[in-house]
Amino acid sequence: MTSWDEKVGGEPADYGNAVLSANGSYTILPEPVKTFLCNFEAAIRNRNVYDIIQCYEAQFPKLTERFFAKYNWPATQVVTEIVSRSLGGKEPDQLFVILYTEMYYKHIYAHIAGGPSFEDREASYFNYCDFFNFVLGTDTPVTHELPYQLLWDIIDEFIYQFQNFTQYRAKLKNKKDEEISTLRDSVTTWNIHSVLNVLHSLVEKSCINEQLRELASGGDISAVAGEFGERQLYKMLGFFSLIGLCRLHCILGDFFQALKVLENIDVSRLDLYCNVPTCNITTSYYVGFSFMMMRRYEDAIRTLNDALAYHNRVKSSLAGRPDVADYVAKQTDQMCHLLCLCLSLHPMRVDEIVHAQIKEKYNEKNLKLSRMDLDEIANTFQYACPKFLSPVPPNFDLPENYQMNPMRQIKEEFISEIKQQARIPDIRSYLKLYTTLSIEKLAGLMNTEPQVLHRELMCYKHKMQNIVTADAAAAAAAEAPTASSSELDFYIDGDMIHVADTKVARKFGELFIRNILKLEDVNRALTRLDQFIYGVAAGEAGPQAGSARS
Amino acid sequence: KYIELQVTENVYDCEANLAVLKLYQFNPSHYQTNVTIKILLKAIANLPHPDFSLCKYLIEPDKLREEPLSSVVALGNQLETCDFEEFWQSLASTKSSIPAIGSVLGFTDSVRKFICHVVGISYQKIKTDQLCRILDIKRDHLAVYLEEYGWKLVPDDPSHVFVFNYEETIKTRNISEKIGFPQVKQLAPVLQNAASDCHKRAK
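YS: structure for the whole thing
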């Protein structure tokens, strides 16, 4: 683990102020870094949200790229020293210390080769405990204000590090014995119950569910918010914790619960609640995935479609954040894969632009998927699915690599579900060609017996029935409204199949109108240009000539 | 215990059952085969909802592959693929080996309800024999089901049962384009200019 200490003398000597580091040797910290640290602390202490955003989103990544691309940031004690010294001996703000430590470890996870060691992971975990204790452990709410992006990033990173740790713990094959015994003994570090507990406490403390319900019914939020929930910090932490819980349930394989925790949120209008693009995209991904696993293909397609359209809109605003660019790109790619998968199972019309994007990038894949190529389906699923986890520690006595097991389990189940639907695309393609068709004829075309065909047709109908309700609770009720929204529908009358297809006429009118108006604009621009040129020329010759021209 | 209650009283609480499975996932030492079987059976009885799939995601694949769970899973799969006749046969043969199946009150009724639901959405008219076969009932019992779902024997043709008049609902639709007045309004100034230009040239 290289630290800044070892890099003494690597930079030109115009950075002043040597500082005593934790292990007693001198370290030279560059001036820009010191200024940043002091500004950041001041911003947090003064509750200046705008400055915090500047420090966190703009300066920190720049400084990381410039000085710390391969090395750790200075240790927390060093930083506390520096800031305290600049404040004339006073203690820096406690929240600043916690946040800086969080950013320190996040940097290790993201940029340092070899990733975090076990000690790093444990220390990071305890830092998160400090943060949540700081926020939750008081009787009265803390008065700090933090930007939403920062709050979301904390929750997001918290769950990510938990995921990472569980995977790390499950890879037992190449570990040394002491490592294994340390893991065996550390029951409390990154324990699933604590993680769940934290998220649930945040949700409870901020009364976020009650607030959301009031919001949906148009009532008065402040009446139900409670002392903590009134403050933006707690409210948004509660909101982001709901999303965190959705993600957590999804990666544990409980898709029903994943959707249930978001029951008070209208997933199709996420931008109403908060304007954090990374949060909205991540939410849509997990929600879309859960819908797909629950066989609610229509909802899944709609959610993924909206998410991809949203991503197109906010792409430009995300360009300024290189640290999240990769992550967002990967997630959108995964969502494209999921959309391709859902569309091959349940063809539906989607947004024009999204449709064009998919066609461009994944044409070959779509062909294979529509032919029910099981390998292609398995690969697509594996790429697009989240990293599933098992909530229990692995069997430490048998050093194997267990981390892929949960994923394999879910993938197997999914593939067996797909196998049950294997004949459906064939049936669909044949039905598209006819308005009425006898069972005998279709059986002949498909090389099966009429008996078997009856069964397959019923299976088609059964699988394509989606639950169409946004309310997760209602969906579980016995009489949830279901509908088949496939564009192609049919019914069986004795021995005849009657097919109904939806034909959408091409929209010429809109295209023509748009282009007529465009042409008009161009004409006007040309006329203006004309006037301008001749006006100038006439101005040189004489003003009367110019006015006669126009 | 709650599961027992559901089984004997013929009620169903999906969330609670999933929670129990989750409990087993978190604490594998608490796992009980009997309870899991009953949960799976209740999930099957709740088709067409995807509860059965959801349950399977939460159970370890090794357990699903061995008896007695594997027979229950097979039953579920047969229903999911609408292989009803196979299902009744398998049920008869596994009923003896898995006593739990017999203890779930209303299991066969719920299954028949599901089958009728599938028939209801697929058929306008179905052969009476076929219907009896997939429901695994005798011709004389058919009347009860016909009454329940409002189906009728076709008047002149007792070999068919009339399910639902889909002719009205499932028809080919042509979504043609409608150009609304507001859109045309946008063109008004353009058209006006064009018209006056034509006038000028004509003069």
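YS: worth flagging: Chain B touches chain A through 55 residues (CB under 8 Å).
IM: good catch. Also Residues 181-202 of chain B form the longest helix (22 residues).
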